[in-house]
Each structure stands twice: as structure tokens, then as C-alpha cells.
């Protein structure tokens, strides 16, 4: 539990620092040029790119999952499987009941004889 609290405090501090640095770079940028643009424009372009990357990455993952997941079995097939299992269970119960009846009859005969 202590580790969770420490991790929470670390995440909180890192997030606040990231927000402050991001705001400083966008609204009060130093005179630094990256790839031919000022740092504020570069940060905004990078933010937009990461947002688009995340959005289309998630869409690609959803598409891949839909394309590679096999379709579910039809309900009729599932119902048939369930009916077959029920028949097997009923047959097992009948067999067990017959065994129990035979055993109880044998016990009665031994007790009478």
C-alpha cells in the first residue's frame, strides 16, 4: 500500500511538471528552433501528431481484432451441443440410479436371507 501511495505522489508530481513545461513551451517559448520551426509550433505539431497516432492506432487495433476474431457459433449449434450434453447426463443419471437400485435390492436380499 505504501508503494501505491508513493507511486501516486510521483505520478502527481510528474503530471504537474509536464503540464507546466508544456504550457511554458506553448505560451512562453524560448527562442529555440527545431526542424525549421519555433519550439512552440513544434510542440503543437508534436501534440497533434501524437493525438492522431493514438486515435488511428486504436482504430487499427480494433480493425485487426475484428478481422482476426473468428465468428461466434450459431445459436442452433450451441443448442444442439447443450441438448447432447443433457442427454448424456440423463443417461448417466439413469445408469447410476439403476446401479443404486440393484445394490439396494442386493442388500435387502442379504439382510432377508
Explain what the structure shows:
- The protein is mainly α and 113 residues long.
- The protein folds into two domains: 1-69; 72-113.
- Helix content is 83%, strand content 4%.
- The protein contains three helices and two strands; from the N terminus they run H-E-E-H-H.
- Strand 1 (33-34) and strand 2 (37-38) form a beta hairpin.
- Helix 1 packs across helix 2.
- The protein is elongated.
- The relative contact order is 0.04.
Give keywords.
3 helices; two-stranded antiparallel ribbon; mainly alpha; 113 residues
Kindly state the percentage of residues in helix.
Answer: over 70%
Structural class by helix and strand composition:
mainly alpha
- Can you summarize the main beta sheet? 2 strands, antiparallel
Task: Give the spatial strand order of the biggest sheet.
Answer: 1-2
| SSE order | HEEHH
For the termini, the CA-CA separation is: 72 Å
Query: Can you count the beta strands?
Result: 2
Mean pLDDT: 92
Specify the overall morphology: elongated
Radius of gyration: 35 Å
Spans where pLDDT lies below 50 across 5 or more residues: none
What percentage of the residues does DSSP assign to strands (E)?
Answer: under 5%
Helical region count? 3
Structural domain count: 2
